[in-house]
Structures are given as C-alpha cells and as structure tokens.
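Hi C.,

You asked whether I'd gotten around to modeling the 152-residue construct. I have! Everything is below, sequence then structure, no commentary in between.
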Amino acid sequence: MSPADPLPSTDVTLTESQRRHLAVFLELLEEALLDIERAAEGGPGPPRLLLEEVDDLPPGFAASIAPDLGELRDQLRAVVVRLGLGPRTRSRAGWIRAVAGKCLVDLADAGSRGLRGYGPLDPGVVREIDPMLEAMQHPLVRIVARLSAPDL
C-alpha cells in the first residue's frame, strides 16, 4: 500500500489504555527511526568519556536505507491515521525532571548499595566511590530546582 492509497475503514475498537499503549509503542518506533537515521548519517558527536563510536558502516549505507526508513514512516503514518491516534504532548520540564530523577536513582544504585549484588565489596567503594557519586547528584538536584525557580 502506498501512502496515497485510501485506508480501508476499520472496525477495530481499542480501549483508551490500549490506545495509549499502542501510541507510546509507535512513538518509540518513530524515535528509533530517528536514531537509526542519525547513526547512519554519522558525523562526529560531542566527545564522550565512556563510549567511542566506531564508523563501521558500509559506504553509502545512509542513502541505501533512506527508502526503507521512508516506507516505515509511511506505514507508521498509516497506522496512526487509521486508528485516529494523535500526538501526545510532552512537557520539556517534566521530561527533564524524569530524566534527572532517573539519573539520581541510577547514581544511588551505582555505588556500594548497588555494587553489593555483584560480589564482595572493597571498603574503598564506600570511602571513595560513594562520595564521588553523591557529589554528582548535587548538580542534578540544582537542575530540577531551577525548573521551579520563577526567574532563571
């Protein structure tokens, strides 16, 4: 089916919860397509300390997958239209709060509390690593606090 073809009517009835679940899944698919496209196009990103990306894609890869990405986007659009799904809104402030909150939990779990599950714990973890990870939490807390500040 091409994007110009009319969509057959559907008698599918979804509950509101099913619609939300499907919409979130399709949103993740759409985000994955963007990630694939960005990775295929390459280009140097900002320097990272713990991840080095290797450019091992075959020559012309980005151009060769462009039709497939387009087809996937057309199919995604067809599903969204056919089921009458619309875009949800995302608060940038709420998203930052959620990401920062997840990072705070992850930092707490990365220290001695979380490492105990991986084997005997060196006493230096509590003495040296825990304070470093705790210090990393302070900027995250300040970032979240700024979202509530009347004047930045």
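If it helps when you're writing up: Residues 16-83 form one domain.

Thanks,
B.
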